Amino acid sequence: MMNARVILAGLCLVSVAGLSVGQDNSGESGREPGQKPPVLQGPSAPDNRPELLDRRFGGSQEGAGNRMRAMKIIPPKDLQQALKALLSEDAEPAVRLSADQEKKIRELVAQFEQDRRAYQKEHRAELAKLRREAGLGREIQRAERDPSQQTDGRARRNLNTDERTMREPITRQQAIGNRPGRRQSVDQQPTPEQARAREKMRAIMQAGPQAADLQQKIYAELTQAQREFVDARIAEFAEQRAQERDMQRFERRRKDRQAEQRSQRRPRQVTDWSRVYNEDGTVNLDALPARVADRLKPLSEADRKRGVEIYRQRVERGQRERDRRMTPKYKNPPPLDRVDVPKPKGDD
C-alpha cells in the first residue's frame, strides 16, 4: 500500500506539473523550411522511443497517428485516472501493476522530480526576469527567493506554479482576463519585445525535463493488457465528455429558443378596472387591451358591458390558475394515531 500511495502521488505530480503534453519536444516538427530554431533550444536528440510508442493508439482512433502523437492529445486527468485504476485493489490480476512495475514507476517519478527541481532552480531568476519583460504579471517574489530559506513544501509549490504557468499557452493566460497585477487584458496585444520574451520563456521550458517524456516512460512499462485497459478507459472518458458537450449544446439551444420566444411575446397588459367604465356608466374602450377593444367596438353598449364582464371573469379565472400553480402545496402531517410505527425487534 505504501508503494501504491507513492505512485499515486507521482501521478498527481505528473498531472499538476505539466502532463498536458501539447508541446513538441523534437524541435523540428512544425517549423517552416529555413526557419531558425528557437532560442536556447539545444541540440536535438535521437529517437530512442520504445517500439510500442510507434503503434496505433488503441487501434480504433482514426487520425490519432502513432501512439506517442496520440498520447499528446490525451487529457492528463484521464490518463491519471486510468493509471490509478491499475493500482486499485479491485483491478483484475491481469492488469494490476506488479511490484516491479510499481518500483520502476516510482523511480521514474522520483528522477523526473529531481531533474525538474534542479532545472527550475537553475533558471529561476531568468524566468522571473523574462516573465516581467513579457508583461505576464507582477514580480514573482517567491520565485526570486532563495530556496534554502523555504521549506520543501513551499519550494515545491512555487516550482509547480511556475512550471504550470509556463507550460500553458500564452493565449490561455491572456484569456483569463485583466486581473489587476496578474494578467494582460485579452484586447491588449503583446508588444514585439514581450513576444520575444515569451518565445524565450517557451524555449527555456521546452529545453528542460518534459512531463511528456515521463508519461511515455511510464506507459512503456505497461503490459499489452494494461495498455488495452488504459486505452479503453480513456475512450470511455472521451465518450462521456462528448455526451456532456452534446447535452450542454442542447441545453444552450433550448435556452436560446426560450429567450427568443420571450422576446417575441407581447407584454401582458394589466387592465385598470377602475377606468373601464366612464362616469356615465358607458364602457371606456381606451382602458381595455387593444384586441378586446377592437372586438367590443362594433357592439351596442349593452353587449359591450356583457363582453367586459366575460373578459373580467376570464382574467380572474386565469389569475387564480396562475396563483394555484405558483403556490407550493403543503400537506398537514397525519395524526399520530394513524401512523404505523414498527416495534423494535425483541420488544413484545
Give the structural class: mainly alpha
Q: Helical proportion?
A: 55-70%
Q: Approximately what portion of the residues adopt beta-strand conformation?
A: under 5%
Query: Assembly state here?
Result: single chain
SS elements, strand count: 0
Shape: elongated
Figure out the total of helices.
Answer: 12
Main sheet summary: none
Radius of gyration, CA atoms, in whole angstroms: 34 Å
The tally of structural domains comes to: 2
Mean pLDDT: 71
Overall description:
By secondary structure, the protein is mostly helical. It folds into two domains: 2-26 and 45-253, no CATH class; 273-326. 55% of the residues lie in helices and 0% in strands. The protein is built from twelve helices and no strands. It has helices at 2-16, 67-71, 76-87, 99-133, 141-144, 152-167, 170-175, 192-207, 211-220, 224-264, 290-296, 301-326. Helix 1 runs parallel beside helix 4 (99-133) and helix 4 runs antiparallel to helix 9. The longest helix is centred in the C-terminal third of the chain and has 41 residues, at 224-264. Residues 16-33, 38-43, 45-71 and 139-183 have low confidence and may be disordered.
What attributes characterize this protein structure?
2 domains, 12 helices, mainly alpha, 348 residues, elongated
